[in-house]
Amino acid sequence: MEDGTKPRMAVVPSAPPIPLVIVAGCPAEFVAVCREVGARLGVAVRECDLRSLRPTIAASQPYAVLVTEDLYRFEPASFDSIIRQAPASLVRIDAREAHDPPVRRLLIDAIFESAAAEPGSGIRSILT
Q1: Residues 6 or more apart from 60 whose CB is under 8 A from it?
Q2: How big is the chain by its Cα radius of gyration, in Å?
Q3: Tell me: the pLDDT tens digits for 61-78?
Q4: Rounded distance, CA 23 to CA 26, Å?
């Protein structure tokens, strides 16, 4: 400043991180419900493919990763390795769960309510 004093810095308290759930290999209607529930509960949803899953998890530290059981069976060792390196829960979704609207809704609500309640608690045991 002109009078020789330094400008003051504003101190803004940081907001808690928004919990993130990554959805990989799930049907479009499943992802749509995830986005709807996430928006309602303040949980971010990121959809990604198998190729970008490892870097996405490493960069974003999600609360949970949702994958179809079929995709998990394709490369179980890779998924297990990825999850061991990240403080996230791996939730494997059966095709019946993904395509049955009432079951799908209950499953997604439970996962996202858990994420909204405890976004920063490290590795958690949730529905697996």
Answers
A1: 20, 22, 46
A2: 18
A3: 899 999 999 989 988 998
A4: 7
Nearest one of 26, 33, 47 to 106, comparing CA atoms: 33
Residue 47 CB coordination number (10 Å): 18
Give the predicted TM-score (pTM) of the model.
Answer: 0.78
CB atoms within 10 A of CB 90: 17
Q: What's the rounded Cα separation, in Å, for the pair 47 and 124?
A: 21
Retrieve residue 69's tokens.
Answer: 């059981």
Q: DSSP H helical segments within the chain, as ranges?
A: 28-41, 50-60, 69-74, 76-85, 95-99, 101-117
The arrangement of strands across the sheet holding 44-48 comes to: 44-48, 20-24, 64-68, 89-93
| Strand, helix or coil for residue 23 | strand
Asked whether the beta carbons of 11 and 3 are under 8 A apart, the reply is no
> Regarding predicted confidence, which is higher, 45 or 85?
45
